[in-house]
Amino acid sequence: MQLTCDRALFSAAFQTAASAVPARTPKDVLRNVYMHLGSAGVELVGTDQEVAIRYRVKGVTTTSTGEALLPTARVSSILRELQDDTFDIVVEEQSLQLKAAGANFRLSSEDPRDFPPVPEFEETDYFKIPAAVFRQIIRRTAFATDAESTRYALGGLLLEFDDGKITVAATDSRRLAVATAACEKEGNPKAPEKTTVVPTRAMALLERSIDADSEFVDVAVRENDVLMRSGGCVIYSRLVEGRFPKYNDVIPKSCAVSIPLAVSPFHSAVRQAQIVTDEESRGVDFVFNESKLVLSSRAQDVGESKVELPIEYDHEEIRITFDPRYVADFLKVLSPETLVNLQLTSAEHAAVFRVEDSYTYVIMPLAQNR
User: What was the pLDDT predicted at 150?
Assistant: First the structure.
């Protein structure tokens, strides 16, 4: 079996498939990327058996069919070092060669029949979300999950399909990110009866795999797993078990004041105030009064800071304390020119950041007598 590959295209596809390969596993066969040559072209597959990626490779010329396992670490290193525009892969019974103009590598290869099967996207009923919008939604929510939590299903993103729209929610119990977008249907997909929580890792892999040419992301939710397709990439994932918090109960229904803030200057002020904090004193006081916002922080053995920002504000003073990391995480996924609407009630109530009607971010304040 022999194939000639465009180095840049194959390398990009290989790295995408390799992102699902586990760093540590008792199953040695999972340390490989599976390569399949068939009538539909060349496909690369990586999996840890919880999450998997199938990626169709462009720029390959071959008359062969068959399968092989590519040792992930060695092949990644070789592809990084090759300088030629093209290279050849020659697969023999228990080895494979990677050959370029001035280099020839022969590697041992395991039996591809030992590689676990990975589902293909064969569904006829599924939801379709505009690719660029879905990519933005993932970026705006994934950071709020808690991968370490054993409580509820906080290690993933909740997906809800209802009345022509998709809602994605993520929380770590101290903050909540919720984003919505319109979606379409192909065939007759039913809204899942069970809570659909997709692992953060699978959604992050999808976000990185969506290319500029993709028009839609197709999502097929099954009883215990989900398949997501974008162009030549298909991601499979088991769903996270456990209950997801009732996120709508966390979002305040009303507020005392609403403050418009431009992302760029606000983010700059938060970053400055964050400098003079430490592990014991994470909080920054946000004081809204007399057409300005004052951010102040103090940390023992570090020092103190005071940052002022002119804003539109003509209400009574509100002093509220936030962990600045949570504010900065939200601001850095927005473009600098975005206008954010901050809704406050008091120092003890949750603060709500809104971007138009499609993105809501809620942060719980810190106690001021910390």
Answer: 66
